[in-house]
Amino acid sequence: MDSFQFLLNPSQELWNEMAVKIYNDVGWKTSFDDYDSFLEGFGKENFAFIVAVDKASGEPVACICGARFPCVEGSPSVFPIGQYYVLPEYRAHGLGKEVFAKLVEFADGANMFLYAEPKMKQKYIERSGFDKFAEWDVIVISANTKSVDLTRLQVEEDIKIASFNALDFNKVMEYDRETLSTGFAVDVEGNVFGYCHARIVYKNAISIGPFYADTQEVASTLLKHTLEAVPGFYNYESLNAFISTTNTKGLDIYKSMRL
């Protein structure tokens, strides 16, 4: 590994460069703004973006990131993993193992989880001990925005939608614990019972998430308000979301928009 330099939380430019490389190879959609959001939101003591740079060319060729969610009210600390990627021409040389090992060291014993590409599942089981699985799979939903019909989303007029800045932050945190541009559904007392976030990702696309709601009616109302608030919604190429196979009501909402 002497030919590579490993960097922890390097420049924004390296995050952007890896985001483009990953999209061009496997189509994963990432926002350039995610990096600063993660660093500010989690803090450098809880967030790690590790990049391997080829010393000869100066090119970033592998990366991985993860964030520590601290214990809340006795819950175990958890450390989700993402952006785990190695350029095709640099694979099969142990570079992926090396960046993964460095992230495990950073996690310092926290429970770790990741979403795996199906072809990588067995490797994670055998090599890294990821042998516990959810009873559901993740569905990737993607559609051209011009085929999306927001008017088909049902709206409950008595549900109040508020922006983040208009809310009591403690109310937001309380709801987030319980559910484990953003719109929030609130009652007359300001209690939160749903939120939806849409962000712009590379390349000229919209990605939905996190997205939680107590009822299907709240979810549909939130989604419509959130997407209508995206400036120039139909100028983006695609709308994307991730949802579990067990969330049939959520799937029905997306289908109602003709996704």
From TrEMBL:
InterPro entries associated with the record: Acyl_CoA_acyltransferase (IPR016181), GNAT_dom (IPR000182)
N-acetyltransferase domain span: 6-151
Protein name: N-acetyltransferase domain-containing protein
Example of a GO MF term: acyltransferase activity, transferring groups other than amino-acyl groups
A Pfam family the protein falls into: Acetyltransf_1
